[in-house]
Write a structure and sequence with these properties.
The chain is mainly beta. Among the domains are: 35-110, no CATH class; 169-236; 257-262 and 272-338, no CATH class; 345-379, no CATH class. It is built from one helix and 28 strands. The strands form eight sheets. A six-stranded mixed beta sheet has the order 11-12-13-14-15-16, with no helix packed on it. A five-stranded antiparallel beta sheet has the order 19-22-23-24-25, with no helix packed on it. The longest helix has 15 residues, at 19-33. It is elongated and about 145 Å long.
C-alpha cells in the first residue's frame, strides 16, 4: 500500500478488500492535521484527555510521549497517536491564542515573534501607514524595553534616529492635530536644537547646544556668539523684556536666592578654594562702533581672602569699571573681610570729576573729595 507524498495518507490499492479501513484511516489523518488547533504545547500528557484532543509535544517529552518531541499528539481510541509534522505546518495554540509554524530543525516557532520580518515596505498598527510614515502606530502608549542580561541582553535600551548628511534633519516632532508645536534634535546641522511654534508654520528657536563645546545658546543666539567661551549665551530679541526674572512668595523675611559655588580639583574629587579665587561674578559689556563686542567693561565679583577651611571662610566683594577713553577694566572698590571699605589707591586725581566723588591719593596718603569745583583733602 502506498501513501500520498505530502500528508502520508494511505491510498487504495486496486481490488483492495475492506476499503473502508483505508479510507477511514486517511480521514482520521486529515482530521488530525487539517486546520490544526492544539490544546497546548507541553512535555507531559494531560491526566484526563478527551477523545480527539490534540497537543504539540514539547522539546523534553516524558512518559508515553518520550521520543516524540515536536510531534502532534492525537488522542484516538483511548491511546496517543503521534503525527510527525512537516515543514510549513501551521497550528493554533489555544493556550496562548497564537499561531505556530513548524520550521523543521528549528522546531515550532511563534509565527509572529520568532519569524524575521525583513524588508517590509510599511507597517500600520491600528492605523494606516503611508509612503512617508512607513511605521504608524495608533495607541495610548508605546513601550520599548531592554532585554535583561538574564535573557542574553545587555539591560540597555536606546532609540536611534540617523540622518544621512549634516544638512539633513533627525528630530522628534511634537504635534497637536497633526500640526507641529515643538521640535528637538539635529535640524539642519549637527548641533542639538529646540524649536517651538504656535501654528506649525512659524518657528522660533528656543535653545541650541554646541556639539563641540556643550555650551548653550538661548532665544536664537548661537552658543559662544557673544562672549567666548561661555556655558550659556543668549539674546532676547524683544526690547523692554527682562532677560531673567524670578518671583517667590515667602511668609517671612527670606530673600529670593541666587547661588553660585566653586571648588578646585575635579567634580569627582573637589578641593578647597585658595585665597584670591573668585567664586561668583556678574559682568557686562556692549557693542562698539568698531563692529564688535567689548570685553567685560564692568564687573561685580566675590572672592576668597583666605584659603577656605572648615572654620575659615574670609571673603571680599570687588567692583570694577573701565575708565573713560580706555578698554582695560580695573577694580575700584572692595568690601573687605575685615569689614572695611577699600578704595583702590590712585596716584593722580581722576579726570572729569563731579561733586561728591572721593578717592585715595597714594602720593599724599590722603583721602580727597571733590566739592565746589575743586579737590580737597579729607581730614
Amino acid at each position: 500500500m502506498s501513501d500520498t507524498h505530502n500528508l502520508g495518507l494511505p491510498l487504495l490499492e486496486a481490488g483492495q478488500a475492506q476499503k473502508h479501513v483505508t479510507v477511514n484511516e486517511a480521514l482520521r489523518l486529515l482530521d488530525a492535521v487539517v486546520q490544526i488547533a492544539v490544546s497546548a504545547v507541553t512535555d507531559a500528557p494531560p491526566a484526563s484527555p478527551a477523545e480527539g484532543e490534540r497537543h504539540i509535544v514539547g522539546a523534553s517529552p516524558s512518559g508515553v510521549w518520550s521520543g516524540h518531541a515536536d510531534a502532534i499528539a492525537l488522542r484516538r481510541d483511548g491511546v496517543w497517536v503521534f503525527i510527525a509534522p512537516q515543514e510549513g505546518f501551521v497550528a493554533f495554540n489555544r493556550a496562548t491564542g497564537r499561531l505556530l509554524v513548524f520550521a523543521g530543525a528549528s522546531g515550532w516557532l511563534d509565527l509572529f515573534l520568532d519569524a524575521a520580518l525583513d524588508q517590509v515596505a510599511r507597517v500600520g498598527i491600528a492605523t494606516a501607514a503611508d509612503a512617508t510614515n512607513r511605521l504608524a502606530v495608533r495607541a495610548p502608549a508605546i513601550l520599548l524595553t531592554a532585554v535583561p542580561a538574564a535573557d542574553g541582553g545587555s539591560g540597555d535600551a536606546q532609540v536611534k534616529i540617523n540622518k544621512e548628511a549634516a544638512g539633513d534633519t533627525a528630530t522628534l516632532l511634537f504635534q497637536r492635530g497633526y500640526s507641529g508645536r515643538a521640535e528637538i534634535g539635529l535640524a539642519g546641522d549637527d548641533h542639538l536644537r529646540l524649536k517651538v511654534s504656535a501654528d506649525g508654520a512659524a518657528w522660533s528657536e528656543a535653545a541650541s547646544i554646541s556639539n563641540a563645546s556643550g555650551h548653550w545658546g538661548i532665544g536664537g543666539a548661537a552658543p559662544d556668539s557673544h562672549v567666548a567661551p561661555s556655558l550659556i549665551t543668549g539674546l532676547i530679541p524683544t526690547t523692554g523684556e527682562a532677560l531673567l526674572a524670578a518671583t517667590a512668595i515667602f511668609n517671612a523675611d527670606n530673600p529670593v536666592p541666587f547661588y553660585t559655588r566653586r571648588a578646585r580639583g575635579t567634580p569627582a574629587s573637589p578641593s578647597a578654594i585658595a585665597a584670591g579665587d573668585r567664586f561668583f561674578g556678574f559682568y557686562g559689556g556692549g557693542y562698539h562702533a568698531g563692529g564688535g563686542w567689548s570685553p567685560n567693561a564692568v564687573a561685580f565679583q566675590g572672592a576668597a581672602e583666605e584659603a577656605f577651611t572648615a572654620t575659615a571662610h574670609g571673603t571680599r566683594v570687588d567692583f570694577a569699571t573701565t575708565p573713560v577713553g580706555g578698554t582695560a577694566r580695573r577694580t575700584i572698590v572692595q568690601f573687605r573681610a575685615n569689614g572695611t571699605l577699600h578704595l583702590t589707591p590712585m596716584s593722580a586725581a581722576p579726570a572729569s570729576p563731579e561733586n561728591g566723588q572721593v578717592y585715595y591719593d597714594s602720593s599724599t596718603a590722603r583721602f580727597r573729595g571733590y566739592a565746589g569745583g575743586a579737590w580737597v583733602d579729607l581730614h
